[in-house]
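Students often ask why we bother predicting the structure of a whole assembly rather than each chain alone. The short answer is interfaces. A chain on its own may look different once its partners are present, and contacts between molecules only exist in the joint model. In this exercise we take two input lines together and write out one structure for the complete complex. Read the inputs first and try to guess which parts will touch.
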Amino acid sequence: MPAVLGFEGSANKIGVGVVRDGTVLANPRRTYVTPPGTGFLPGDTARHHRAVILDLLEEALTEAGLTSQDIDCIAYTKGPGMGAPLASVAVVARTVAQLWNKPLLGVNHCIGHIEMGRLITGATSPTVLYVSGGNTQVIAYSEHRYRIFGETIDIAVGNCLDRFARVLKISNDPSPGYNIEQMAKRGKKLVELPYTVKGMDVSFSGILSFIEDAAQRMLATGECTSEDLCFSLQETVFAMLVEITERAMAHCGSQEALIVGGVGCNMRLQEMMETMCQERGARLFATDERFCIDNGAMIAQAGWEMFQAGHRTPLSDSGITQRYRTDEVEVTWRD
Amino acid sequence: MQAADEGGGGAAGARGGPSGPGGPNSHSPPSVLEGRGAPVSPGGPSDQVSPGGPDSQGGPGGPRAQGGSGIPDGQGGPGGPGSPGDEGAVGPAAVGAPDVARAALESGLGGDAAPVDVGPENRQMVFTLTVPFRSPLEAEMARRALAPEAQGHQQAVQKECAVNGSVLAVRWTAEDADLLQISINSFLDQLALVVGSIQHFGLTPPLSLG
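Now the answer. The structure tokens for the assembled complex follow.
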């Protein structure tokens, strides 16, 4: 019955989680929120994480009712993500792994999302749409790898939404995407925006430039409201995501779709994906904000699978990396 | 009026040429030179300065901000201008650390920061830091926790860590003062985290938190 501790801090969320045999025993998290009109920078984000990580670790152990002796393995995010935050979190993981004499495991952040999604929803072998501020990929499992079927060729969909929020000075609390979603519900007019799907892939930098420019013009003339723009942006980018997910599902003959990542919290996206799935006779799986959004337990869960399969990360090889492809990891814990 | 000698614990003058006001390596914002101690660092948790002791800096972050924070009078005469060209006297005290870790570092850290001037033609700068721990085991733990960090500027800044007894010794070599300062500051931040982790979660009784 191994219990695994997981550290996550690749972006502006810092979380420490504990998982034992498929049960999440603790999952506290803090978010670094910046003022409206700004984004989070690596140095400041790392500083935020350093200030709270030890307290979070204490909180996780207390919530789980465990001591350091009860932990069997320390998992941490090896990458991908922002360098300074990743490094700060990894330093703590390495230190406690040595203090408590426990094996260390460097986990791929994307795989953390996938494994937690599988655990929570029970989906067997879904086509995964992984959408967040930092990543946008369509993934399916095949022969010991999580294969990337389609992805963004430039920025992540969440990055597009976050940067649009800055233009409108929408609050970043609790997250810019959440606030865009609420505003979109009040939108009435669909503004035509560039729709960019390229085969299995998507592109968002064009729609971002377009809407940043359009926002200045259209709001000045009163041609539309901010709510209309939020609504239009969501409808367009989400439709693009649904299209590439459907294409991958058709390719694989898949009857299950799973949405993971922070943008997966969005109910409109879930609604649109559900419509597509129903039309194909497939089933949609999604998790709630505890697990969609970056969290420590997802790293612990992926770490648990890896630990059981015999993976170990020696200290000398425990650096972090900002670029870490989902398909670089050999998924030995699945058939 | 300038402090001609910048010897003294914690002074890490990074200079490749004659020092003077606005010398080649001087990046300090005006507030340092005026010695007013105007808070410059972005949100550093505290700017306590041990009078006459190693200089503490609040707030890790950009090197320019570092130059100004927390050292209004630490360089010599009270109210006098800080040493011009002094890169903010990176004393080996805790930077942005939790109170516990900072107290331990201030009391236990015997940083010997010895600048080496290799002459104006070769602008190599060297900074060394020694960090005492309670045991060789702890020092080695710290080295392993801190060492694998991939450095962003591999060519520009070299960093070597070694453990001698209970002391972690770190040596930086660089030509660019800004990159050197960034590397040192980021190391100090990580070090504070390691010390904090050891204190909070080590299996031996923690140091007194007074």
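Check your guess against this: The beta strands of chain B are 125-132, 157-164, 167-174.
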